[in-house]
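Tokens as discussed.
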């Protein structure tokens, strides 16, 4: 597997890069890849089908000048901020393998990620809950989502390492959908930081996925085109 460390200049570019890479692989121009990037500013990202007004405290975001973006995968709404680590996996879909359907892919990927983090915190209880959440005890430190094409899938998530968790309660509503284990807990009682460095976590995940070869750089033109067409537009970001 190849590894790509990104640090593009805007949130829209980083979100677009995931879709550009998925498109390249789907069109036969790429293969298995693990991508890392770290947010340098605060912004909100809703899942593809999320309704912004239901999931986001839009008044608080507007007051603070915090933008809202929409990603191409499902799942819930997240606050991206410094102290978080984003990863993306592009994996081939096979008819009989571990990525054959949504459920199998979730189980396969989440268990590998869980084991990688558990190896860094051997005394802690690291578990997968609610299908695609990673938890320290009963507190969530990572959410994940999936986007599938015919031949390849995108699986990506955000790990809370050293984030200002108070921003989550300030900028998000209570989610319209929540896993049973949450038990209606407010954000501040539901999430936690791992308190590990980004480099430590990246090294562990790269080892787990055998991501040892450097991936070629993505085309800036392809990313800019998708930003202009989609990720910088109200018609996409505020479509629901």
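Sequence:
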């Amino acid at each position: 597997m190849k590894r790509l460390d990104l640090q593009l200049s805007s949130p829209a570019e980083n979100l677009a890069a995931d879709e550009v890479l998925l498109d390249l692989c789907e069109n036969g121009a790429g293969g298995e890849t693990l991508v890392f990037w770290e947010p340098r500013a605060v912004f909100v990202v809703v899942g593809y089908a999320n309704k912004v007004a239901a999931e986001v405290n839009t008044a608080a975001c507007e007051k603070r000048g915090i933008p809202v973006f929409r990603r191409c995968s499902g799942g819930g709404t997240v606050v991206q901020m410094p102290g978080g680590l984003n990863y993306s996996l592009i994996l081939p879909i096979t008819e009989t393998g571990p990525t054959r359907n949504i459920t199998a892919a979730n189980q396969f990927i989440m268990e590998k990620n869980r084991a990688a983090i558990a190896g860094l915190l051997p005394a802690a209880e690291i578990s997968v809950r609610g299908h695609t959440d990673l938890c320290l005890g009963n507190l969530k430190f990572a959410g994940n989502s999936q986007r599938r094409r015919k031949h390849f899938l995108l699986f990506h998530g955000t790990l809370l390492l050293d984030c200002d968790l108070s921003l989550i309660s300030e900028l998000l509503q209570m989610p319209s959908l929540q896993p049973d284990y949450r038990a209606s807990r407010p954000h501040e009682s539901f999430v936690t930081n791992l308190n590990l460095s980004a480099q430590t976590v990246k090294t562990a995940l790269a080892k787990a996925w055998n991501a040892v070869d450097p991936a070629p750089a993505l085309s800036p033109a392809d990313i800019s085109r998708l930003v202009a067409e989609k990720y910088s537009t109200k018609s996409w970001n505020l479509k629901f």
